[in-house]
Amino acid sequence: MFRNIKDTLSRSTAMKASVVAGLAVAALATGVPAVVPGAYADAVNVQAPQVPSFANVVDAVSPAVVSVRVESRVNSVADEDDSFGLGRGFDDLPDDHPLKKFFRQFEQQQGRGQQRGQNQQKNSDDKGHLRPVAQGSGFFVSEDGYIVTNNHVVSDGAAFVVVLNDGTELDAKLVGKDSRTDLAVLKVDPKGKKFTYVGWADDSKVRVGDWVVAVGNPFGLGGTVTAGIVSARGRDIHSGPYDDYIQIDAPVNKGNSGGPTFNLNGQVVGINTAIFSQSGGSVGIAFAIPATTAKDVVADLIKTGTVSRGWLGVQIQPVTKDIAESLGLSEASGALVVSPQDGSPGQKAGIKNGDVVTAVNGDPVKDPRDLARRIGAMQPGSKVEVSIWRAGKSQSVTVELGTLPADQNQASNDDSQPSQPQQPSSEKALADLGLTVGPSDDGKGVAITTVDPDSDAADKGVKEGEKITSVNNQQVSNAGDIAKIIEQAKKDGRTRALFQIQSGDGSRFVALPINAG
């Protein structure tokens, strides 16, 4: 049976082939092209969900984003005899000389070709000549020409040029800058023109996973758009006291600094200011200054050219779990006062070393960074209620804030652990702590002469040559004082004691376990 079916199929196939061949011969005879139905398959066309386009956002915001070119005065041998530069030496060459053409083109690419003669005439009496030293990004925040960028973009500049989206170049002047938040404001003369500008988003509503679009001038290429999502909020990258960055994964590179990151409504969520990279290029980890921070700073810079911040004037460090236990705090939060500065508002209000700042105006303080941001956001002269934890109980003091000095690192945000010199002194043992102590050279506190490398003190960074100035906020002058305080702490049910350690680089607190036996 199978053979008969096979023979039938063979005869049928042969008949079809002869018919097709006959049609082909007939078509050729009549001059009509031969078409074999079903000879080619349809092109692939997948009906998949379409990702929303960013084109509408980009079209709307791009005119508000600018490139920022920064120039500085450079005085070198080449300025005196510019035969190796772009000045007099090449001017003497024939106009059709290849080197002259090459360097003229280079000058134009750097945006100096048309302005070079004017700049040299203008600055002929000044020391040095203007040379490009940096480039970045920025954006308009008003129709009359105020531009936001990064402080680190403009900090070394003597002259500034902004390049609009359509290629127009405009001279700009520096209105003000703030190194603590890395923000700066430039201003261009509108000359009757109204610029497209963008507004601020409420970044408190931004969620991890939201789409964002970064626009800027990477590597000096001009307006470039990249997209990504919000990766994290509240990032501290240890660049300053007000670190509270939004982390995004949109590709951001050198030259993007000062450029905006937008939400899908075309509002500025943050200002690109830093990248994390071991190679110097984008690896998808970029940090943006939140809009809520930038908005207030930019408003102050536009209004006065400076930013006034409240100042408490105390050096602080984080409250670790061990420190909290040693002080009888229920949780490791707040900011531990290492020392108030002489004459500071904090000292005048009675804040002492060993106090823990737990709240400001009734709002709990999470850590030193939180305290620094809150105090810095307040106006100098403001009176604030500062809640502190002292001697096992809570109390409040009223502080009239001062003005944070312009060139001073705010002491109320110093949460670093300084390195210490090693200066051995004489001896006396506190074996349970792994320390040997002796009289200090100045009679204040006790000197640490040796530290057991296997002790908790060594693990906490305590070193020979440092001094113990207090234990549990009580001054000590000898080993006996330390022993008495530790004994009392044991009676109070404490398992740790808080040691104030003094070194050549400053003071800090360390919580050490005490023998409960």
Description:
This protein is of the alpha+beta class and 517 residues long. The protein has four domains: 53-72 and 132-307, Thrombin, subunit H; 76-126, no CATH class; 310-413, PDZ domain (Pdz3 Domain, Roll), CATH 2.30.42.10; 429-513, PDZ domain (Pdz3 Domain, Roll). Helices cover 23% and strands 31% of the residues. It contains 13 helices and 27 strands. The chain has helices spanning 2-30, 55-61, 77-80, 88-91, 98-109, 116-122, 151-154, 291-304, 321-327, 345-348, 368-377, 456-459, 479-491, and strands spanning 65-74, 129-140, 146-149, 159-163, 169-178, 183-188, 211-216, 224-235, 245-248, 260-262, 268-275, 286-290, 310-311, 314-318, 335-340, 356-360, 363-364, 383-390, 393-400, 402-403, 429-430, 435-439, 446-451, 467-471, 474-475, 496-503, 506-513. The strands form five sheets. Strands 21, 22, 23, 24, 25, 26 and 27 form a seven-stranded antiparallel β-sheet that branches. Strands 1-2-3-6-5-4 form a six-stranded antiparallel beta barrel. The chain has a six-stranded antiparallel barrel with strand order 7-8-9-12-11-10. β10 (260-262) and β11 (268-275) form a beta hairpin. The protein is elongated and about 95 Å long.
Outline:
The protein is an alpha+beta fold and 517 residues long.
Shape: elongated
Helix content: 10-25%
The overall average pLDDT, rounded, is 79
Structural class: alpha+beta
Number of domains: 4
Assign the CATH topology of the largest domain: Thrombin, subunit H
Strand content: 25-35%
Evaluate the radius of gyration: 35 Å
